[in-house]
Amino acid sequence: MEQKKFDINSLIGFVLLGAIALWWMYTNQPTPEELEKQKTERALDSINAIQKIVTPTSIVAPTETFVEVNDSLKQVQAQNALGVFSISDMVSTDGTTVIENDLLKLTIANKGGQIIEAHLKEFTTYHDDTVKLIKENNASFNINFGTTDNRILNTKDLNFEPTLTSNGSNQVLSMKLKVDANRYLEYRYEIKPDDYMVDFSIRSHGLDNVFNASHQLNLEWDLVSFRNEKSIRSESMYTWYYYKQDGKVDDLSQDDNETENNIDWVAYKQHFFTSALLSETPFQQANIISEKLYLDDKTDSIVTNRFQLKTPLELQRGELNYVMNWYYGPTDYNLLKTYEGTQLDEVADMGWGIFGWINKYAFVYIFGFLSSIFSNFGIVIILMTIAVRIIMSPLVYKSYVSSAKMKVIRPEMEEINKKYPGKDNAMKRQQETMAVQRKAGVSMLSGCIPALLQMPVFFALFRFFPSNIELRHQSFLWADDLSSYDNVFNLGFSIPFYGSHVSLFPILASIAIFFYMKMNQSQQANMQAPTQEGMPDMQKMMKMMIYFSPIMMLFFFNQYASSLSLYYFVSNLLTIIIMLVIKHYVIDEAKIHAQIEENKKKPEKKKSGFRQRLDTAMKQAQVQQDVKKGKKK
User: Fold this and answer.
1) 81-87: long-range contacts at Cβ-Cβ below 8 A with a sequence spacing of 24 or more?
2) CA 562, CA 477: separation in Å to the nearest integer?
3) pLDDT digits (tens, 9 = 90+) for 85-116
């Protein structure tokens, strides 16, 4: 057989044919635009083919299957995280419900079932914004609890299902955190017409096998108070944490932390507004916390304080059942005392002891009567001041009469000082002085007691005006808000203890105080016995106080309510007028001198037991001085 030989010519031919084929394929390939067009055409052809052979229902089916798969995954994730409460994950997180009346508007969120906005419709801030005690996530209401499947949950993280109904003219909102239709935790809100008090209850149904009784259920209510007033210093000063315990209302110091039992309610007071939670079942082992966030005038803070309540909730037969109330409203004494049996009126802080008694049973009614007649509260304050000064004028008269009597016998007292000079004769000098006063019918206390009786009125009004919400945003003359300082000039810098502004009413009050003390100093000089040897000169101290007191008051009142400065200005002005009238038209010094001389002729009254013991003690002291004096000689 003949063997084939390699043919070089055939190889060259195949190579040339392959090169030609490659060149043809390269030169005839589609451009990128043509490729995109072909892709689009193929997609359209595919869609058209599907539309021809598949019904519309068949088209939707893959999408539904995808959603169902997603929902199934979501349910599995919720089940893993929330256990039996996984159904809450199907409720809208962003949903809210509004309940309101003419005074109050509450917005309740599905998430947490809690109030996220509390709007007081009749009040505005110093910037003329609406007053909202709850807004911008400044508050949190939560129940922390354990479940029998070993989960620790917080209601603030779970979604409640809302149901809005009515009960007569009341709006009722039921917020349910469900396990299923028959097992749930419910927050129930009921708002009545024209009322700041909202009924609230927490109850569970069918959760006795869900709650883990070995894990403590804790109620937590936190709130950060926003600034509402012109003077943040005053607002912070009157912002306090109040609570009622064992029938007594007490307050928590700012920046304090206490654990108390038998708490009926807690109230977060923000000067003129209060947020309160009341419970028919007292809280036990309640941890109450108050923290001051405002530091100084240099910081223009928008918040003042932080309040916190953390208290255990007790299960009864495995279920929760607490009847409560929310109060979001003004700190108005007259309003709060209408909630009988709660003692919420104590939050208005009218003062303690006799000062509170004077405010509650005198000044509240006087102010209320005058404000019912006059709409201008500056005029009301002036008329109230006139009424108070008229009531107190007998005490001023009594003090001035005592001063006039002391002035008449002053020469005799100076003779006693000359007759018994030196420290060794101090007791003898005091005995003779008291004898002259007794014969003349003059008592040092008769001048002091009237002044002391006026002090409770001073301190009572010091509480009354800054706490009176009716003065809030009421203008008078140049003061745009009688509940805050009147600002007539901004300094542009801050003076320690004074501030960065100039208030006019404190200046007027300080001037009036200066002239009042100037007149009173001469009166007091008559009241005082001549300065005895070795004793401090009280008259020199009084002269110093004439200049020091007005300056001190100027600095003190510059940051306080202008209503208080207006009162003290008018009060001191009226006192000066009354003193001048008494001096020039009422008191006759000649008659007083004649009366004293007549008293000296009368037989001395029998001494009281106290007077006898006092005289005996002074005589014994004088004898001891004489003995010491003899030994020295």
Assistant:
1) 82/151, 82/153, 82/158, 83/147, 83/149, 83/151, 84/147, 84/149, 84/179, 84/183, 84/210, 85/147, 85/153, 85/158, 85/177, 85/178, 85/179, 87/178, 87/179, 87/180
2) 11
3) 878 777 778 899 999 999 999 999 999 999 99
**Rounded Cα–Cα distance for residues 158 and 296 (Å):** 39
- Expressed in percent and rounded to 5, the helix, strand and coil fractions of the chain are 50, 25, 25
Between CA 185 and CA 603 the distance in angstroms is 87
Residue identified by tokens 């006039």 is 404
Q: What is the DSSP letter of 469?
A: G
What backbone phi and psi angles, to 5 degrees, belong to 611?
A: -65, -40
**What are the residues facing 139 on neighbouring strands?**
223
* Closest C-alpha among 526, 524, 476 to residue 504: 476
Write out pLDDT tens, residues 193-223: 999 999 999 999 999 999 998 899 999 999 9
- pLDDT value at residue 552: 86
Question: What does the alpha-carbon distance between residue 631 and residue 633 come to, in Å, rounded to a whole number?
Answer: 5
DSSP 254: S
Helix (H) or strand (E) holding 252: strand 248-252
Taking only the tens place, the pLDDT of each residue in 239-270 is 999 999 998 999 998 889 999 999 999 999 99
When pLDDT is cut at 50, 70 and 90, the band that residue 30 belongs to is low
Where do we find the tokens 């009847």?
323
pLDDT one-digit tens code per residue, 541-586: 667 777 888 888 888 888 888 998 999 899 889 888 887 887 777 7
Sign of dihedral through CA atoms 597, 603, 608, 609? positive
Tokens of residue 583, six digits: 């001096």
Helix axis angle, 426-440 relative to 377-419, nearest 10°?
120
**Order of strands, sheet of 115-124, starting from the edge strand that comes earlier in the sequence:** 96-100, 104-109, 115-124, 130-134
Q: Which residue has the tokens 């404190």?
A: 506
Hey, how many other C-beta atoms are within 10 angstroms of the C-beta on 618? 16
Handedness of CA 29, 32, 35, 41 (dihedral sign): negative
**Separation between Cα atoms, residue 420 and residue 433, nearest integer Å:** 11
- The region that residue 31 occupies, defined by phi over 0 for left and psi between -120 and 50 for alpha, beta otherwise, is beta
CB 179 within 8 A of CB 87: yes
Identity (one letter) of the amino acid at 193?
P
Query: Which region holds residue 73: left if phi is over 0, alpha if psi is between -120 and 50, else beta?
Result: alpha
d(CA 367, CA 332): 14
Which residue's structure tokens are 């401090």?
Answer: 536
- Helix ranges (DSSP H) in 420-472: 426-440, 445-467
Number of residues assigned to the chain: 633
CB 347 within 8 A of CB 336: yes
Q: State the residue for tokens 């004077």.
A: 358
